[in-house]
Amino acid sequence: MTAIMVSTMIVLLLLGFPMMIPLIVAAFIGFYSMFGGFDQMNFMIQQFMAGIRPASLIAVPMFILAADIMTRGHSADRLIEMVMKFIGHVKGGLAISTATACTLFGAVSGSTQATVVAVGSPLRPKMLKAGYKDNFVLALIINSSDIAFLIPPSIGMIIYGVVSNTSISELFIAGIGPGLLILGMFALYSYIYATIHKVPTEEKATWSERWASVRNAIWPLGFPVIIVGGIYGGIFSPTEAAAVCVLYAVILEFIVFRALKPVELYKIAKSTGLITAVVFILVAAGASFSWIISFAQIPQTILGSIGLAEASPTGVLIAISIAFFIGCMFVDPIVVILVLVPIFAPVVESAGLDPVLVGVLITLQVAIGSATPPFGCDIFTAIAIFKRPYMEVIRGTPPFVFMLVLAAAMLIMFPQIALFLRDLAFK
Amino acid sequence: ATWRYAFEEAITDVQGVFATKFKEHIEANSDHSIQLFPYGTLGESADIMEQTQAGLLQFVDQSPGFTGSLIPEAQIFFIPYLLPETHAALDHFFRNSKAINEDFKETYAEHGLELLKMFPEGEVVVTTQEPFDKPADLDGVKVRVMTNPLLVESYKAFGATPTPLPWGEVYGGLQTNIIQGQENPLFWVESAKMYEVTDVITFTGHNNFTTAVMANKNFYDGLPAEDQKLVQDAMDSAFNYIMEYQKGLGERSLEKILEQKPEMEVVRLTEEQRQPFRDAAQEVEKKFIEMTGDSGQALLEQFKKDLKAAQAQ
Amino acid sequence: MSDNQSMRHESTLPGPLGWIDAWLGRAEALMLGAGVLLMAFNTVANVVGRFVFQNSLFFTEEVNRILIVMITFAGIGYAARHGRHIRMSAIFDALPTSARKWMMVFIAFVTAMVMFALTFFSVRYIGSVADSGRILPSLQIPVWWIFLWVPLGLAVTGIQYLLTALKNLVSRDVYLSTQVLDGYDDDETEV
Ligand code: NA
Ligand code: NA
Questions:
Q1: Tell me, what CATH number does B46's domain have?
Q2: Which one of A400, B269, C8, C81 counts the least CB within 10 Å of its CB?
Q3: Contact B149/C137, CB-based, under 8 Å?
């Protein structure tokens, strides 16, 4: 059944079907063979609803809306202008800033999709204009946004902490090291890329120019202040921050700057709704596919046939990495964590592995798998928001996946990358 | 045959321990096998309930609190101080209560479910940032509750500000001070790491988190007599095990918490301090009857009778 | 495809069918725009209630859930209408026009059938939820109400794909949807 499901899915995908169809048809096949007919297909719809149920999902349309308002108005331009005055003269500076902005925004908002939208949509046009190739830009945005999985708050780590009975605080701290390591790798790659492709730099700005750009961006600088202050000040949750940003964006662009007319708000909202729907239908269809995989106990069957019991600690870590990487290529990360963590729990314990290290490694694999084709929410979000063909969105991915896999290998070889900060704080 | 059994917690939590015991008994005493589906692997509580009603799953563990949207009377378990506060009385109550073993059985049957067992999961405690021993101390304290009208009513009556927050945001919400408290059974405070982000655990005695295991009724009725007996025996065995397990669970959880966080403050409200909270429960009873009408009232009276019998033990 | 073209809610169907189709397009657009704005308003209102007035709005989460279902299922029909569903078209794009045309007829037809099948299953699912009598805890309304968009959105999407198949059969060019010619354009068009 698994083989037929996966091969049908890939064939339909390659033929050029709307991407919900491969997922839905694969789930159809699963349901049909599991229940011997169409009687229980209702539960596909139940899982569609379950897929789009999490309250945290609303951050996606809210950040799309806020980012679109900022980009069409003045806020985004003024912020980027300011950044350019400071780093425009550095080789690869804009790319490095984009990666950093994605990491920081993802860290605070907790949503990788929201990051793709909020940071990617204003910065992508600037990077294209500066001379970066689109496939590099898209891959950079998607992969840097996925660093957000590793940096607190991370819903994936919270779920892992609960399922595996591991300290969430320790996980949060342990994720920072690998997160920064990956950001460093991306920054280095950006520098090399800019050098090889001879991306031109701007002339170094004077301090008075820089100061003027800061003053010009003073209102839009309220965004980070509001988001960070509001979340850490206990006023709203990261999810709610998205809606508060919408409010601030509306106030700035429609009242303070008068850059947009009220009727445009409706247009922007409509386009937000469209992008949201296109991504969420895939989340919904993906949930029904995940459900049948889980119901049929396919992971248990596959993993049961591999003799993990005698593996060395490093062997277990590698097995975990591969299983989560493959799982997240096809299935929603949260479901992968919920299903696979209990399966691996006995071997993790018998191998004497630190559950915090395992948690960080799993979170890293989740990030890699989510950015890796064929399925990934951030890929879908990028396609929907930037209106670029699927192949172009993923074409620049390989170097990034290579760096992420390298980071995973380094983490397995040198666990201190993750555990150093944890030990400093808790031991 | 292969039977599927889904529950609302991780495999190492109370529902998971119960399910594992059940599975062991069935597999040791028959050729049947059980597949266990912990929290989230087949969806949320409402999803696995529907899947059981439709017969995709044979067994489901759902706490009556979550059943409330399907069977309003099940929300009776949210009324504070309706369950015994000592282990012995609790044990007697769950074994002998007519309300639980007869009245609820009929109600669940109307929804296509065979109620097999109800059992307590552990005393509900409140964790907060500041200590409290009277309702006035809770003034302005935002306590996260599930969006259930009775829970909301309870915490209002306790003097706090009940606040809804999706479960995934509770940990962060406590960290950043959106909320200043939450309630959960003690083992869950330990396993979901709520103690990492709060400073005080208060035993108010207002509830013991109750859960229920059910089978799809058509499936159960269609079983041959010896299989029905097998299921009942396995349930009894799991129940006996879990009541023993329960006895030390609270202390074990507390020990683990204090080991991880020695500065955690533990407050047990005295009988006298509990009285104002007990009085507040009247409001919640009223709300319950308002929501469920005569059938709710009858159930409530039976509950109180059973409670008296249990406390007489 | 210019901005104006894609913003218009004109149908390519004849007579009263076209009229219905055009109004459906407008209704979908309204659901999307209003749904997103309501979600922002609803969420901010809860923040203000909780932080300023010490009183959370208990229905906020449920209302957002309703809006998400509405946006998703009003949106898939609208996306189908404007050829915006995500697909991997690398192989498809490499085919000659005539092959692409037949391929598109096949894709659109199969997609329509899948959508109609899902419509049927969703009606059955809603029926079972309605029978169970389940209600939303804080709004105290039947749960099945919030799913009503689902069959509607799926059916509308199915019809759009069916029409796309027909459109490709009767015209010379290759159409991604009833209104959109194949080929990505670089303009950031507004839909
Ligand atoms: Na994060
Ligand atoms: Na993926």
A1: 3.40.190.170
A2: C8
A3: yes
